[in-house]
Amino acid sequence: MSRYGQRTRVGQAVSNFGQPPTPELIVDYLILAGGGAGAHNIGGGGGAGGLLSSVTASSGTGVLGDALIVRKNINFAVVVGGGGAGSSSIVVGGNGSASSFYGLSATGGGGGGPGAAITSGSGSSSGGNRGTTPRGTAVAAQGFVGAGSSDSDSGGGGGGAGTTGFAGTTTQIGGNGGNGVSNSITGSAVIYGGGGGGSPFTSGTPSTGGTGGGGASGSAAGSAGTAGTANRGAGGGGNHSTGNAGNGGSGVVILSFPIAAGTITIGAGLTGTTTTSGTNTIATITAGTGNVSWA
Known about the structure:
- This protein is an all-beta fold.
- The chain has one domain (about 1-10, about 20-295).
- It contains no helices and twelve strands.
- It starts with about 25 loop residues before the first strand and ends with a strand.
- Residues about 1-15 have low confidence and may be disordered.
């Protein structure tokens, strides 16, 4: 029994009139959405994109999904979500976009809240905010909430895939972004989904993004926030006043299956590569919308 519900076979293979069943293979996955952007004007950091996986625990509550059973010679839709756009005015940073495969969808991260009484964005992980203004909500089992600040003149960190964002403490110290989660689907441990850092006031020390590519905040008036790392679903950092807050990092879809089981075709509209790790083929799809199939 999958923790997402009963495992489903797509198009159950059956034998009709003596015909052999359609070949199938087992596929492990990592589905990571785009991160939210940071906000402007003592803005909060962006929240990380949601992460779903069958290899190591997903974000949020740490749910581990079952590997998927897929049929060969059938198209399966893949969407890789982009990161949100950092704001340069007093509005919430852009939310990240969802990534999906095989009916599983990871929600994009929420954008950070600006230096005004405006609630930050909701998403897989929500964005941080200035002062005690309420933060947006996080999607259950996909991420953590952003933080505010004990002081009205610093921004809190965006939620990460692994922890909540950290609160700003004084006018000069914004909150760090929440940390991401480690996943080994590629054969090596990689941390995904760091939240973006919240901005300090005036000439304060910049906050850091969370582990997993979260963007750091700007440090002073005129200092831009740093973008979240691409294909890590990371949140962007907030900025103080002039310039842009950091964009969210794009998501990724990674699929792993035995080399001996078949080959994958990454279709038009998708950007991706294949490598090997041990006895498995690793298909890493970094952008776009399209289909994949196996033969």
